[in-house]
């Protein structure tokens, strides 16, 4: 098959050679003749060859990295060509188990964009030398050629290419395997050779559909996340870095970590689980941040435990103590011990991590803190702008229970629901505990038994709470009585002391009077 792009390509190269020869010999022609030849030459060229070609090489220049534009075009053509091209090539996508079909070499497809026709051809460079190379790509230099009519130059170079690259990138994001990263201890990466993050494939099954929360609040959160992910231009317009902070707080087992997984699945982001205690100092924290990619969620779990907010003061105290240790070896040992024990990340380092100048690089990032004790956190850390959205996750309400009942029992309603609703209002139980009670404990356990199990657990929790309240009241009463007793004793002591002082004064007075008399 004679391909349109290739035919024009060959003709184009003949004309290009002619132009080259002309450039070499033009000085031998008189000035006037030269101008005329050039004029007619261009006219002839535009008559014979009204098409423009753009080439996209897989490995431009000497780089070892595949060209990003080439990858995007490959994805775009794979999605658009598999229905039209006759010869396709199957590739296993890196880190994934799915196949991508793309145009085979020397295959061509055409398409129309806003009335402009374009031809895409896939080709391969045959190596000129017979050198042996370590890199398989050396003899596999592929490239795409885009051919279009000169009259469409504007629409193609301005709009069509942008469209192809954006589409290609979006397809790549949709089909990639997402990753769950965690930071390595600094001893395990040497210089810049090893990445500071290691990763596994992220395939947590949690979604917002299976995450139990009051539907209205849940929808608010989903809307907030989706608005953020589409707000690139808006953030640029208002001059804000494209990132958003979420603070999730509440008792253990209320679904904070599950929510992070659901967020990542909704937005198709990678997750960076940052273990602050493994970060040596603020510089390392910054390096870790720079090493993250966009379209990601950076999570710091249990922030109140990870960071000693009095760290700065403590380290100063430790330094003073060290001064007192005279023996050089002791100093060394003490330093080593303190280094291995605590991370030197300070509050200001963390604040900088969240919204310092560096935090803007990359963009499209969500930072999440989770904690059980929000009141322990420094207000500077969670002020709006750093942690933009504060979400309290609390004990299971009836609406949340309904989601869990649907997940675990495929149940929308049941006569026992009213009892459960009442009990959930009267007692506190985390979604984790509710979920655990709805799990089947044996193959024979049916829906009814599992609901009854939950009711029993709720009643037990209610009873326990009541006993605890009575116990607390008793304790409080005892404390009050103790306090009253102590006050009474103090009062008596004071009165006794006053009485003794009064008597002594009388004796002294009497003595003084006696002397005088
Ligand atoms: N709101 C919820 N919806 C669905 N499942 C939940 C929810 N909350 C908790 N669970 C279940 O309970 C388990 C524990 O929840 P999760 O780890 O998210 O709690 P957490 O709030 O992060 O607790 P911690 O503060 O101890 O880290 C999860 O495996 C999940 O199955
Ligand atoms: Mg958690």
Structure characteristics:
7-stranded mixed sheet; binds magnesium ion; binds adenosine-5'-triphosphate; 517 residues; 17 helices
Measured by DSSP, the beta-strand proportion falls in: 15-25%
Helix segment tally = 17
* Biggest sheet record: 7 strands, mixed
The tally of beta strands, per DSSP, is 13
**Uncertain spans:** 133-138, 310-326
Order of helices and strands: HHEHEEEEEHEEHHEHEHEHHHHEHEHHHH
Structural class: alpha/beta
Shape from CA axes?
elongated
Spatial strand sequence of the major β-sheet: 8-7-10-11-12-9-13
Cα(first) to Cα(last) distance is: 145 Å
Description:
By secondary structure, the protein is an alpha/beta fold. 51% of the residues lie in helices and 15% in strands. It has 17 helices and 13 strands. A hairpin with a 6-residue loop joins strand 2 (88-92) and strand 3. Mean pLDDT is 80; it is low at 133-138 and 310-326. The site of adenosine-5'-triphosphate has 14 residues, from helix 7 and helix 16. Adenosine-5'-triphosphate (ATP) binds next to helix 7 and helix 16. Residues 242-397 form the AAA+ ATPase domain.
């Amino acid at each position: 098959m004679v391909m349109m792009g290739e035919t024009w390509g060959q003709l184009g190269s003949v004309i290009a050679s002619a132009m080259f020869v002309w450039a070499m010999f033009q000085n031998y022609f008189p000035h006037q003749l030269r101008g005329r030849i050039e004029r007619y030459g261009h006219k002839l060229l535009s008559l014979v060859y009204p098409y423009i070609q753009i080439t996209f090489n897989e490995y431009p220049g000497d780089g070892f990295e595949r060209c990003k534009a080439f990858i995007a075009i490959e994805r775009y053509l794979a999605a658009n060509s598999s229905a039209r091209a006759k010869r396709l090539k199957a590739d296993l996508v890196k880190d994934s188990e799915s196949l991508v079909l793309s145009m085979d070499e020397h295959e061509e497809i055409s398409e129309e964009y806003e009335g402009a026709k374009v031809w895409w051809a896939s080709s391969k460079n045959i190596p000129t030398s017979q050198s042996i190379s370590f890199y398989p790509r050396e003899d596999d230099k592929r490239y795409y050629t885009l051919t279009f009519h000169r009259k469409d130059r504007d629409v193609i170079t301005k709009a069509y290419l942008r469209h192809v690259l954006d589409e290609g990138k979006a397809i790549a994001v949709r089909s990639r395997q997402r990753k769950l990263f965690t930071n390595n201890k600094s001893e395990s990466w040497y210089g810049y050779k090893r990445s500071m993050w290691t990763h596994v494939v992220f395939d947590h099954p949690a979604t917002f559909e299976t995450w139990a929360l009051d539907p209205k609040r849940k929808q608010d959160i989903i809307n907030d996340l989706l608005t953020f992910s589409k707000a690139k231009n808006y953030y640029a317009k208002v001059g804000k870095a494209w990132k958003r902070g979420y603070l999730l707080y509440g008792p253990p087992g209320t679904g904070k970590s599950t929510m992070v997984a659901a967020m990542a699945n909704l937005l198709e982001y990678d997750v960076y689980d940052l273990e602050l205690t493994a970060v040596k100092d603020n510089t390392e924290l910054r390096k870790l941040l720079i090493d993250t990619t966009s379209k990601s969620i950076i999570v710091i779990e249990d922030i109140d435990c990870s960071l000693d907010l009095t760290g700065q003061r403590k380290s100063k105290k430790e330094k003073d103590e060290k001064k007192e240790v005279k023996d050089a070896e002791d100093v060394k040992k003490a330093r080593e011990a303190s280094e291995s024990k605590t991370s030197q990340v300070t509050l200001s380092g963390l604040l900088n991590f969240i919204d310092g100048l560096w935090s803007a690089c990359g963009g499209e990032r969500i930072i999440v803190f989770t904690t059980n004790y929000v009141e322990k956190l420094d207000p500077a850390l969670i002020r709006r702008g750093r942690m933009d959205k504060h979400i309290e996750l609390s004990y299971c309400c009836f609406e949340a229970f309904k989601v869990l009942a649907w997940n675990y029992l495929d149940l929308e309603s049941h006569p026992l629901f009213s009892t459960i609703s009442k009990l959930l209002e009267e007692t506190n139980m985390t979604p984790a505990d509710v979920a655990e009670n709805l799990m089947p404990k044996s193959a024979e356990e049916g829906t009814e038994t599992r609901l009854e199990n939950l009711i029993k657990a709720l009643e037990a929790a209610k009873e326990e709470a009541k006993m605890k309240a009575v116990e607390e009241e008793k304790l409080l009463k005892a404390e009050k009585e103790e306090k009253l007793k102590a006050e009474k004793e103090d009062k008596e002591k004071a009165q006794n002391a006053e009485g003794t002082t009064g008597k002594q004064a009388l004796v002294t007075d009497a003595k003084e009077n006696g002397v005088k008399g």
